[in-house]
Each structure stands twice: as structure tokens, then as C-alpha cells.
Design a protein that fits this description.
The chain is mainly alpha-helical and 90 residues long. The chain has helices spanning 10-48, 51-62, 84-89; strands at residues 72-73, 80-81. Strands 1-2 form a two-stranded antiparallel sheet. Helices cover 63% and strands 4% of the residues. Helix 1 (10-48) runs antiparallel to helix 2.
Length: 90
């Protein structure tokens, strides 16, 4: 029987709560360590003036840049314009 189906069992609730808290604490520590390592890596790349490593580190932090365009409705509102030239003209 799981905790979800037996909410009246206090020992299961305490065990579940402590396990969840430990997992969250561990995850927070891992995130903090990743951020600290990434900050040191970016600072070292900036100090070395290594633009390639610096940009790679920024890409790891911010993710890929979305270069796609969002479709725009035509003036009459019926069709979507998806080509870049059409969007700029609109």
C-alpha cells in the first residue's frame, strides 16, 4: 500500500516527507554547485579573453537561441504569413 492510498499511516507520511525533503535538498545543492562551477568557468574564459569558451558557457546557461519567426495574420485576418519577407512587409 502506498502513501497515497493510506494517508492515515503516520510512519509512511513521515518517511515520505523526509525522503522528499532529502531529495529536494540534494537537488538544490547540485544546482547551486552547477551554477558556481559555471560562474567560475565563465569568469576564467572572460579573463583569458576566450570568446568561444565564453559563448559556449553562455549557451549552456541560456540555451539555444530560437531563430524561427512567429507567423503573423494577414490584414484581413484569414491567413497566416510565415515567410520572413511577408512578415516584414506586414
Amino acid at each position: 500500500m502506498s502513501l497515497i492510498s493510506d494517508k492515515s499511516n503516520a510512519s509512511k507520511r513521515v518517511a515520505y516527507t523526509s525522503a522528499r525533503s532529502a531529495a529536494q535538498r540534494s537537488l538544490r545543492q547540485m544546482k547551486e554547485q552547477w551554477w558556481l562551477n559555471k560562474a567560475v568557468e565563465l569568469q576564467q574564459a572572460a579573463d583569458r579573453r576566450d570568446i568561444k569558451a565564453f559563448n559556449g558557457g553562455l549557451r549552456a546557461v541560456y540555451g539555444k537561441r530560437d531563430s524561427g519567426s512567429i507567423p503573423v495574420r494577414s490584414l484581413n485576418g484569414t491567413t497566416l504569413i510565415t515567410d520572413r519577407a511577408g512578415i516584414l512587409n506586414r
